[in-house]
Here is the input.
Amino acid sequence: MKTLLYSIHHQVRKALLAMAIALPMVSCHTVWDDDDDCPVETEYRVKFVHDYNMLFTDAFATQVRSITLYAFDEDGKLVLQQSEQGETLSRDDYTMKLDLAPGNYRLVAWAGLAEGNAYTVPVLTENISDKEDLTCRINRYPTTLHDEPIDSVGYLHPLWHGIVETQTLTRAATETQVITLPLMKNTSTIRVILQQLAQGQLDASQFDFTITDENGMMTHENRLVEGDGVLTYMPYHQAQGSTVVEGEASEEQLNVVVAELSVGRLMADGDTRLTISNRQTGETILSIPLIDYLELCRTVANYDMPLQEYLDREDTYTMTFFLDSNQSWLNTQVIINDWIVRFNDITPEL
Here is the structure.
């Protein structure tokens, strides 16, 4: 009798052990009535894309070398902050892993911060900092220009911003959820060329080039913060030179001065002004509303897009102005990005 009971007990133990081993191998959907009870972890990854440019192609892998991602929950609290930089971003298949639980999140990215010290972003604390605490401010340095105090800005390394307003991370077995986060470039390069039509060499040290704007601080949504003050962007490169244009009958020498400036995000309704003045006397050679002139270029080039989209997509503008023998501006035409803008019946604002 004892032998029989032992045999039955032994067989039951073997059967229970076999069932215990087999259970984890069965699909969650066949075992659990509620998917939330299913012990399956979905991997979440972010794919960054920068195709908001005039080429309409993704330039993330070729241009971006550092990126910081912030995730905020439905209450606006920071729950995740992580960064990456270097050659790994240049891979076409690069994605950033998100260690987050399923839920609804707002994702914000600033790219390019690690390339220098041109910007200040506050230090945030997870589960304490709010999305409104995330700002990006252009660093400026007090100085004087023609005996007037200014907040000057030199070279700005490229900066990008991206946001996904609401992203739902779901739980799904055996799959990876990829979230696309589009980036937009905030910085632009303005290349200004002064060309003298008369004979004589131009001296670059005789000219001051400035661009003034109130665009020095951005919110997490990439909106400008009012009241941050007027910035005066100064050239990070300024030089003089000449070139010979070969013609059929004669050769003509062109004397030029070139200045390159980098600026923060240009806004369609911004009061952005480009000014060129004589460094010794302070006399103004030209002072123009920059946005109005860039809009003229958009119109002449027949770009079928709103002005703000054009300003956000284009990141390089080359503007050529012509001087007479007295170094006065000949305001009959200007060349912008190889497009000739002639002021026939239009009197350009000075």
Observations:
- The first strand starts at residue 43 and ends at 49.
- The two ends are 113 Å apart (CA to CA).
